[in-house]
Amino acid sequence: MIDYNARYATGYMEGFTDLYEAARLVAVREVLADRTLWPTPPGLIMDFACGQGRYFPFLKEAFPAARLLGVDISFVGVQKARAQFPDERYTVGMGEALPLANDAIDLIFSIETLEHVQDARATIDEWARVLKPGGQILFTTPCANRFSLEWILMALSGGFQPSADGYGRFRRDEPGHLRRLNTRHVADLFADAGLEVTRSRFRTHGFTTIAHDLIRPRSKRLAYRVALLDWRLLRRLPNGASMIVIGRKPL
Predict the structure, then answer these.
(1) H and E: helices and strands count for the chain
(2) Which residue, 49, 97, 106, 178, is the most exposed by fewest CB within 10 angstroms?
């Protein structure tokens, strides 16, 4: 099992200088700013796997009146978040057993987490338990849908690997990624937990991979502009190697 305390102690996920992180931030901020998606501003937002709270400023930007609850498996990550944002609430806990009451949260926000948790099904069940009826979920995760450039590269190089839970993973995924879900997996997991997917959008179809692997060593500015083309032009196409999903708990 990955030691996330050790990771956060050495600066894990502290900012958005990485090309993939920078491009994801643009997409997430635009989704948060889309008022058609959030008819009722959330009162309490749980940032699940908050780390050192790097998304807190953007959640506050979108929902200034909301209270934030940071949850992470790493007490080091939580300590760093508390040092930067002392007015928010925090708790340390596993996703499969959240130390929270039923029906407590208005919005669950989680960036690149379901690939890391030990049990994705149990984690989503916990999301359903702590979410209020009518509450919403916004999460991102690597996507295993067919025919992204990343998927094609794995298909050509024998890069599909098994995972303990049967979902599989990509060889180029970092060691902390235990699985890579596709949209059908997410829909089934949500349905089994009594949740529903209301919107899915996609990134990293091909431009981001090309920008990261080929353009970035020569020009970081150009690589950033090219990487954003996936989101700007192709977000509705499901053949992305990353997904942004919005769900809800029915009333």
Answers:
(1) 10, 9
(2) 97
Q: Which residues contact 171 (CB under 8 A, 6 or more apart)?
A: 154, 157, 158, 159, 160, 161
Per residue in 141-187, pLDDT (tens digit) is 999 999 999 999 999 999 999 999 999 999 999 999 999 999 999 99
**How far is it, in rounded angstroms, from Cα 208 to Cα 16?**
15
Place of tokens 């508390």: 82
> By C-alpha distance, which of 51, 164, 163 is closest to 113?
51
Read off φ and ψ for residue 100, nearest 5 degrees: -135, 155
217, exposed or middle or buried, with CB in 10 Å at 0-12, 13-18, 19+? exposed
Residues sharing a CB contact under 8 Å with residue 106, sequence separation 6 or more, in sequence order: 40, 42, 43, 44, 45, 66, 132, 135, 136
Q: How many CA atoms lie within 13 A of 104 on its CB side?
A: 13
CB 224 within 8 Å of CB 22: yes
Q: How far apart, in whole angstroms, are the C-alpha atoms of residue 209 and residue 23?
A: 11
Alpha-carbon distances, residue 168 vs 180, 187, 223 (angstroms): 6, 17, 29
Q: Which two tokens stand for residue 20?
A: 């993939």
Using the CB atoms, write b or e for 167-204: b if 16+ within 10 Å.
Answer: bbbbeebeeebbbbbbbebbbebbeebebebeebbbbb
